[in-house]
Amino acid sequence: MSANSLLFSINNEGKVYALSTNGSCWREFMYLGLEFKALSAVPHFLWAVGGDRQIYLHVHGLEIPIRVKEESYENERWLPMEGFSGRLLPTDRYHFSSQDGTKDRSIDHIRLPSMAWQWEGPWQLELTLDGQPLDHDGWTYAVDFPAQFGPAKQWKSCVRRRKWIRYRKFSAMNSWCAIAPLHKDPTQEPFIDISIGGNQMPYASPGTLVVWAITAQGRVMNRTGVSTTSPEGLKWINISIPPNCDIKQISVGPTGLVWGLLWTGRTIVRKGVTKDCPTGDSWLEVKPPQDTKLICISVGYNVVWAVSSDSRVWFRKGVEGNNSGTSESAAMGNGWLEITGNMIHVSVGINDQVFAIGEFDKCIYWRCGITAAELTGKKWKKIQANMQLSRTSSSASVVSSSSNTKHHSLTTLSETEPEKKTNLHLRNSWEESHSAPIEHTLPVKPQRQSRPRSQINTEKIDLTGKSYETTLKNPRAWSPVRSVGSVVGMEAQPDSDSSVFDVDSGMLFDDEISQTAWGSCETTWSYVEAGACLVDTVQIPHWFADSHKVQNSDITAGWRIQILDYLRNRNKNQSLDFSDYGIAVEDKGWTRSCEARLVQANNSTEECIISLYWFDLENTGTLSVFQPDGTIKFILNLEELTSVFVSSEPGCPRIVLAVPRQTECSIKIQFMTEFEQEEWLKMLIDIISQINGVTGKPSANSVWAITNAGDILNWDPLPAKLSNKKDGMYKKEFPVFGKNILSGYSTSLHNNFPPGSILKIVGCLFDEVQRFYIDFTGPEVKKQRHKIETEVSEIPFHFNVRFDEKIVVCNTKNFGSWGTEERHELPLAVGQEFNIEIYCHAQAFSVIINNKSYCIYEHRLNPESITSVTIQGPLKLYSMEYCTTSVIIGADEMFWRLMGGHLRRVECCEADVVWGISHDHRAWVYTGGWGGGMFQGISSNTGIHAMTDTHTYCVYENQRWNPLTGYTSAGLPTDRYMWSDITGKHKRTREHTKLLNRHWHWISEWMIDYNTPGGVDNDGWQYATDFPAPYHGKKLFTDCVRRRRWYRKAQINTEGPWIRAGNTALLDISLWAKGDEVSVWAVTVPGDAIYRTGVTPSTPTGNHWEHIDSPQLLMAISTCNNVVWTIGRRGELYHREGISVENPGGTTWKLIEPPKSNLYSHKTTGAKVISLATTVAWVVMSNGAVAVRTQISKEQPGGKEWRYITDSEISFKHISSVHKDVWGVSTDGTLQRRLGVTADNPAGSSWQRVLTGAAVYTSARGGSLC
């Protein structure tokens, strides 16, 4: 499902309306006594020209507030008589400065840019440096300015500095904000047109916006400093135009391309608009279509549309947005093409979708059929959405004036509950405001007492606007003179003017009003603006009459039911004899074969023939692999398959078969075509789902995983729980019959051997038996002597039957040494059949042989550390049964099902709520369905929605400096590839970068990345002394190599059981549930912490995000039991204090002691992944090691001490935990499960391999085995 976006329009009365792509009704902006003449929008930012010919801004739909961090460094120098002092040397930097010391940043002079902003709090010290805590004063020390600062003061420290920070927030959300006029008298030079764009300008920094305007005097103005973090910008600057060119309209495209329309009907194009020169350098003239004059233009990404004076529609061919800044032909195009239809206005949307207003009916039309390959579309479709009848409009008489009004904003177009309101006060500030919300943008509600204007607290504030002494012709119109935004020297506060901070002050519609408030009356439109409207061409909005007809077709109509009943009853009245007919379908299976290739471990392939046989009645089948000559290579029983998923490479369509009962390594099969691969994948998933009895929605206790191809895997433990439980115990039979016990048989005990566990062994002794033993062993550990060896250093229970000595020895091995033996009489005879039962109790093991109690052995080691059992000796086993109080599921019994969709991360919880994050950082919520995409038809289409995801492909161009030629692509023989990946070990070129499969398509060309971490120069290069070394953006004398990053974006269009949840871009997310209350915390791409309100099993998408102030930029988060931990971008750990039901956002962040790089090191290392359980926190460090923080509680949310995983040298890239269930993904992509996690041993004992070589992320927060 596409994200919610808005189409804006103005009717003939000058009122602004919005139509949501997820809705079907026009909703009116609240009428402020001000009509509007023109609109221009990008997502969340709407600029307008008012009836007073001044500029207004409306910021809406942002789930996360706009926050800016102000920084100031306080510098001091040590003086012999005074110590550290603010009196600096004349050559030193300012006392309060920027980080590099070049700018004066006195905190007394850092002010709010306008009244639309407010401070979130006072100035505070930053008490961390690179993730390490500082003292309470926050000072860092160095030898001199500039130098490397550190936390410790040394004898040679001559200077010091500390960092002050303060956040300001844009508070004029969802209200009209007046932009300061060009002159004190706003009527001196009014505006006639406005346009905003540039949000997809090539190579520009994220958040860049461009605003152009036209004044009544014909001047072209550009608003500097406009961005998503500075919506109002800084100031207007004049752009010169050619002589005799009077511009009446201007249009800016997403790439920054600017077209201007002259009063004469000709057009001019701004040349050279780039990220470095957003205003361009000159104008180029474009001739209009022959024998006509243009009256309207609109610029898109790769298109320009226009309307001429005779109402004809024109399309400009050859426009290329990405190259428009560097190529004149790409900016100007190469010819006009007439499009059928008569229109008076046209507007281009985000993905070059086109909207227009008809000449005769003044209705809004959408140009359907527009794609990247067909930019002109096919036909015009009329938008027929219901209309909200305004009180102020001529048709408002149908609305009862006594109805109770509720006012909602653009952010609540799909919501039912308005957010809480706050008030604000005005107080003196230091500077003139450039913009602010206009007065009385919030309607007064009946239940709220409104104060008379004379009682408003305006002490010491000039609200008269005498400095702008002007006579208004229309005193009801709100101009910048009358608006709060024009008052000099005022700063907005949250409790003086509700118009600034009321989130619902931007739009008016009634929920409790009579249905007559919504109607399909004909509306005359004068303006349409599609710059913020994203139309999904696959799932088009419900705006059109034909779409309603399809949806409203009643399959339960009476005539349909009558026909079906007649057909059913017709056969009942006839006696048919089918004895002479044969069986239509024989009870036989079917076979499917094809040629393929078997992929070896070294990635080489060999030809083969695969053949699938399936017998549906018996629910059995086999998969046979033959050599080309027909020789059988191997045969797989389909019951042994635990997972089938995609592992393709460009041009190599592959699937992976997991068969843990036969091999730890997965089996890879490469097909000749993608169609064969998809057909076999769908077929195998359907079959093994039937075998395992899995269909529909998984249980809340499921474990989720993401593969490196973006596929979502799910393992549901519920079927195994139900089938394995007998007499209150979970039992597992080991396949021991026919095994060679003489050389030893060993198997894992998946739940360890805690008290309450039983092992039953039935067998027969050989006649030549001398000894046999049963060992309950702990995990294997690696030790280095002459070489690295693996051995078992702990055996909690050793049961050794010695016929040569006629005794039985019981013992324990601890730290590699045996303890004191306990000896018992021999209970068995040579050649005898036996039945041995070993019980684990709280204090001891008890052994029963042939139904008689034999001995009791007290515990010397914790039995929960037992991970496997080994039997060795000359005997034959008939059966071996393992019983325990918790469900027993091994890796060979875990069936992983492909769910459909495409994600980067997934997070679940015990309340059956599942969220996901795609590669383009959009949030998705699981709908409960199964299938979609290539799995269409495998299940019902319930809950299946359209999905898109975007990947960014990167290659690095490397060069080395040559004394004769300068930087060149000819490197040294030992250098990395001149075109490579980030490591330099693999060759990557732009020409040979291919898409993964046919479902992907490119959405951009190769471009230089000017936002590469570490900084770049004007050409995108980073410099270093050699490969590899730390890179920086400024060339130094010692730099001998350089590199720059190129990127290109590709998009996949698919389907899956997922629905979009908000528009906020997320980096990480964490869920925790207690009953029906679900806590959802997340980290945004900019690094802020947020939490979601209103999330329950019945409303999994929740209501909206609440922002939490963060001490640093964050990258990971986890929550459990009202405890929240986060990880900063530098690897530091924080926990949130004060979280409760009454205060779900908590109060403050506290720094947590960082873990060490390993058990024997005193050096700390940063964290990269965090997962909280009830009393512990599992942390993956930057080097891949795993540490566990213990004794976490609500009273002590930061925990007490660190424990380190030392039983394995596996490095990890992700981990997920809840209660005693811990899962992880190792760096080689293997999905692992932690065994032996108990209250006494929270770090567990060993890792169990579950799924090999494909996972990148996992979530076990549903408590799979708890």
TrEMBL record:
InterPro entries documented for this protein: Beta-propeller_rpt_TECPR, ConA-like_dom_sf, Galectin_CRD, Peroxin/Ferlin, TECPR1-like_DysF, Tectonin_beta-prop
Keyword annotations of the record: Lectin, Repeat
Biased composition (Low complexity): 394-414
Domain Galectin: 745-883
Pfam families the UniProt entry points to: Gal-bind_lectin (PF00337), Hyd_WA (PF06462), Pex24p (PF06398), Tectonin (PF19193)
GO cellular component, one term: cytoplasm
Top-rank taxon, per record: Eukaryota
CDD domains linked: GLECT
Molecular functions (GO terms): carbohydrate binding
Matches recorded under PROSITE patterns: GALECTIN (PS51304)
Polar residues bias (residue ranges): 447-456
Family listed: Belongs to the TECPR1 family.
Protein name, UniProt field: Galectin domain-containing protein
Organism: Bombyx mori
